[in-house]
Amino acid sequence: MGENPAKNHYAQLNQGEENEMDIFGYKTQGCRRALCIAGYILSCGALRLLFYWKPEWHVWISCIQCSLEEADIVLLRTTDDFRTYSRKTVTWISMSAFIKSRSDNPAIEEDSIFSKAIMKPSLLVKTIQVQKIRYVWNVYAKQFQKIGVLEDHYTCSAIHDKFGSGLTCNEQNVRRVICGPNTIDVPVIPIWKLLIKEVLNPFYVFQLFSVCLWFAEDYMEYANAIIFMSLLSIFLTVYDLRKQSIKLHRLVESHNNVMVTVCRNKEGFQELESHHLVPGDMLILKEGKTLLPCDAILVSGQCTVNESMLTGESIPVTKIHLPRADNFQPWRVYCAEDYRKHVLLCGTEVIQTKADDRGVVKAVVLRTGFNTAKGDLVRSILYPKPMNFKLYRDALRFLMCLIAFAAIGMIYTVCVFALNGEETGEVVKKALDVITIAVPPALPAALTTGVIYTQQRLKKKGIFCISPQRINMCGQLNLVCFDKVMAMWWLCPHCFQDIYSFPADHGLPWSPVFKALAVCHSLIVWEDKIQGDPLDMKMFEATNWVIDDSSGHQNAGQGPTHATVVRPGLKATTAPVEGITILHQFPFSSALQRMSVIAQEIGGDPQAFIKGAPETVATLCRAETVPSNFESKLLLYTAQGFRVIGLACKSLQAGKLPAALTREEVESDLTFLGLLIMENRLKRETKPVLEELTAARIRSVMVTGDNIQTAITVAKNAGMIAPTHRVILVEANKEPGSFSASVTWKSLQENKIEDCRSLVSISEAGFPGIRLALGSGQYHFAMSGKSYQIVAQHFRHLLPKLLLNGTVFARMSPSQKSSLVEEFQKLDYFVGMCGDGANDCGALKVAHAGISLSEQEASVASPFTSRTPSIACVPELIREGRAALVTSFCMFKYMALYSIIQYLGVLLLYWQLNAFGNYQFLFQDLAITTVIGVTMSFTRAYPKLVPYRPPSQLTSPPLLLSVVLNILFSLSMQIFGFVVVQEQPWYSKTNIHSACLSVNNHERNSSSSLGLHGVRDGAQEQIDNGFKSYENTTVWLLSTINCLIVALVFSKGKPFRQPIYTNYVFMLVLTVQLGICLFLVFADIDDLYSKMDLVCTPTTWRISMVGMLAVTLAVSFLVEEAVIENRPLWLLLKKTFRYRSKSHYKRLQQVLEQDPAWPPLNETFFSDSVAVTVEGNMGGHSNPTFDSSEDSL
């Protein structure tokens, strides 16, 4: 039964967000519910268990469809490929105790969700809770909306006006009842709950079914062993879950009960516990360290925050207050990507506050509870996003195939035993037994063992993972995006400015440039050390000044304010001032590409200093102050890979308060000071890492906020762009006064003649319209964030072509980084993203494998976190991912073969109404398979990355062929042994001791033989339980050692894992197991054989069995190495049968290789004159990021 989305019955929850869900309304019906209860009783609880596994069936059967407004039960369905259902009950909250009359009703603020959620006249609020988030029913919009968040529609001025004085007590009470407490409550789950949840897992239910069946068949020892193993497994799982629950509880409990000060409207300041906070509360931030219990918008003053425990950003972050802008745009839209500069995040630590002229530092509560950034991190751990990886999907399909095999085996069993006149009960038991043999219940657990071991190995190497499902994905990565983390910056020994020039052995002279270097930064003193951006620190160190972080500096004409003062240090050159006070700061903005400060010499007038991207700073300066050779000088230095920063300043009116000035006022009509040149030195490990990735045919792409020329040079120095490859600069611009846009392609080359090695355009050299015969991969596109955005908006058909060879993306904003990763994914790339976890959060989350370079174990930014701030973690993660993926395949193949080998052996014996004995099953399942399953995954990753990836799916031809051929080999060997043993001269169907007696007759006298015969017959009468036969002994010994053979053959080593002999534990296990098996073959110990249900056979037959096994091993190993693992053979077959890759990027690559007009050089295309010729073949793309009116640059 499926869903039929009718009007008002269906809606979407969190539309467009990461946790988007479909929601359906249902109403409970009494008679249906009564029928369900009757079904529970009649099925002895089996129906209730089925509904526990399938909540949607429960809802469909017990409820009727209705509108969401009338619903008392809602059914939620995720919108991902898994389409997972969950059932939630609607609850009601009464507000009558807080709203006595209409004047008390918060409807005075009509646009508030709090007023829209209260139903009239009942004063009830309808709510549901999904994954710790509360949603209320909006009476007017007729939909469920998230609560616990300040609505996005408020403008900047509205936030100041509505919440600047705080909420009244009654408003606060109403909001608290509707939103719930401001806590990230992760209770320690009781052991009994964990136990019940674990026991109701389908795996253990199947085990229970199997155990009941085995008890019915008197398989007492095996059933008891399985019970013991299952209980041990449940105990270990519950212990681990309990430990995780306690750890997570301790992680969040410190934020749940913090004393805070709030401002109450008409009542002044009030101290209360943080769990009483609601969205809209006015929070007062006092001096000293403060742990933030909620997300809040800073509305006055300035803060420095340590966000390392949340985002992984180890550098203290400066937050500034929300501007009081009078406009009609929502505050988040108005602030664009810089809205984060005004938001304080829950779980972070305020380490410094600076009040402005208005007195105290204030913040309006934005989000509470699980809606906060900290809550989001905790929810991502509690409810990890499932990864739709082909391995797990294919494993489920193969499990279905095994169930089909079991069904065939059941039919065969019923026919054989029924035709031989067996009792009905016995036939049913034997038929059900086939299911427990053919379907290995441990298969899902076996597939995860490789991932668990890999996660432990990564942890030892300082790489932490909060999403283990993604480890296998790392094995498929073929493109990695890097932020600028690969480079570190040093101050160059000279500084360009149109007046000053100085040698390396002298300090910087006193000048406006010097003042800019001394004050235009976001550095702070924290724990007696200067902390901040490494670039700022290098710049400030060059001045030899020191920071005096004063808490109460007196400015002329003003009251005492919190300010930072910089003063000359001991090694500083002489300066005519005592120091400079930094009065106000506008932090660096990715969208604006600059930062600025208002500073004042002690006893002097205030000035503004600006630092940022040279091309951006130059546009803000008066034209007469920008040197005429500005562009050529900028090109000169960026072409050499230097980091170039523009500096500018401006004098301000003495009487105006710094806090009253807007950023637009400060950053206009500036005087250009010069360029700060910083030398770029690659980290020692950067180039080898990138070379290793290139050798492994893994693309490296630079996604940075730096200047494009600098980025190109860094890419060349790092080896991303080979010296023989050409760089094509893609520049896109919007046509002024029209809706069209243009894109220009310029080929850049190094001019060998000029010593400055500047990059020049071929068209400038006098070769317009020239075309070069460039092979695929022999050229690289470079473009800025602005060009990328215009191309994405106006040239959608060109974007996939550009991305195919795009290597450098400069001046990229955070949202553009996320968009770029998504566009690469649309081309079927498996994308990794390596960044610092701060402004790369979006891209790190979107990527298949996001790696945050941070000191924290877990980060809200990404699934992987590396404690070592080095990109060396990237190949390490790929190596381990490949090893985990191959281990999963090995385990899958082994578990499948083990069950099928046992299944074939049992069906053969069923033909003679025989079967394996209890201890035979016990030995195969416990002593062989369980031990192999645990130790096979110990093999470590191969240290070298090969230039191809492991298969991504179980249905790949080599893997399927390997499984099928080994099934045939096992089947052939078992049938051969089963048939040939019956042809032996000593074989007897009725006398199981005839073989050994016939041998003894030749070796001993008849009296001895008769004596032995009497002993054997006596033993038979006492302990023969019907399992003993020559066929049983032959088939069991062959199948048992065959399990060892496939374990050895399937344990792949190179090229993705180390050779199997390096897994010492596994090799020791195999050796011991083989020794025991051979001992069983040749021992002929009566008591042991009797216990194992084996019979004595002549030595010649035992040697024959060993010979069969040796042939099987040789054939299996030869086929695996010569056919399955023969990569050249499979490539030849692909070529012969003209196999075409399904990957979008590979098909596009083939098309472009045949296109003589690609890449275009020194040409300009216009958006309204380009025919979309490839869209039909390549498929259109749509990216919601750019369907909006976003225009950040």
Automatic annotation (TrEMBL):
Pfam families in alphabetical order: Cation_ATPase, Cation_ATPase_N, E1-E2_ATPase, P5-ATPase
One Gene Ontology CC term in the entry: endoplasmic reticulum membrane
Record-level Gene Ontology MF annotations: ATP binding; ATP hydrolysis activity; ATPase-coupled monoatomic cation transmembrane transporter activity; metal ion binding; P-type ion transporter activity; polyamine transmembrane transporter activity
Gene Ontology terms: biological process: intracellular calcium ion homeostasis
Residues of the Cation-transporting P-type ATPase N-terminal domain: 146-219
Principal subcellular localisation of the protein: membrane
Keywords: ATP-binding, Magnesium, Membrane, Metal-binding, Nucleotide-binding, Translocase, Transmembrane, Transmembrane helix
Localization per record: Membrane
InterPro entries: ATPase_P-typ_cation-transptr_N, ATPase_P-typ_cyto_dom_N, ATPase_P-typ_TM_dom_sf, ATPase_P-typ_transduc_dom_A_sf, ATPase_P-type_domA, HAD-like_sf, HAD_sf, P-type_TPase_V
Transmembrane regions listed in the UniProt entry: 222-241, 395-419, 431-453, 895-913, 919-938, 959-981, 1034-1051, 1063-1083, 1103-1124
Membrane topology, as annotated: Multi-pass membrane protein
Catalysed reactions, as listed in the record: ATP + H2O = ADP + phosphate + H(+)
EC number: 7.2.2.-
Protein family (similarity comment): Belongs to the cation transport ATPase (P-type) (TC 3.A.3) family. Type V subfamily.
Protein name (Swiss-Prot/TrEMBL): Cation-transporting ATPase
Highest classification ranks of the organism: Eukaryota, Metazoa, Chordata, Craniata, Vertebrata
